[in-house]
Design brief:
With about 130 residues, this protein is mainly α. Helices cover about 75% and strands about 0% of the residues. The protein is elongated, with a radius of gyration of 29 Å.
Length: about 130
């Protein structure tokens, strides 16, 4: 009986290679290419074989921490761009450039209508039409 291609990647050497490629910053598409499979197959393997998924996660995690540390060092060292990037991503509720008011066109139309209504009421008050 023929073994599937995935068996090689479930062995210690295969898992180490997957982890290394992830640590080197390769994308899932590039890793799939290196294995000789379609990226969809790699996604299936990650779902079916926790060892493969974990090896890729561990490899990517190492790189993510290294980049985070480098970014933090630059930000703490006075690199303004790094500071801005760090704050916008870590505290977007406080440091984002634009606040989304969540107004839709329908709400804008209602706001315009209310504004016209109150402007008309003010004009009528100013002209003495409305009196208490």
């Amino acid at each position: 009986m023929a073994k599937g291609k995935y068996h090689k990647w479930l062995e210690a050497d295969g898992l180490l290679m997957l982890q290394g490629w992830a640590r080197d910053g390769l994308t899932d598409e590039q890793i799939a290419h290196n294995i000789g499979i379609n990226v969809a197959t790699l996604y299936d393997w990650k779902k079916l074989y926790p060892k493969i998924s974990e090896a890729l996660k561990r490899g990517k995690e190492v790189v993510d921490y290294a980049v985070e540390n480098a970014l933090l060092k630059k930000a703490l060292g006075g690199d303004v761009t790094a500071m801005i990037f760090w704050l916008k991503n870590r505290k977007p509720y406080k440091w984002r450039d634009r606040f989304n008011l969540g107004l839709t066109e329908a709400k804008d139309d209602i706001a315009d209508e209310l504004e016209r209504y109150f402007e008309q009421g003010q004009r009528e008050t100013d002209s003495g039409i409305l009196q208490e």
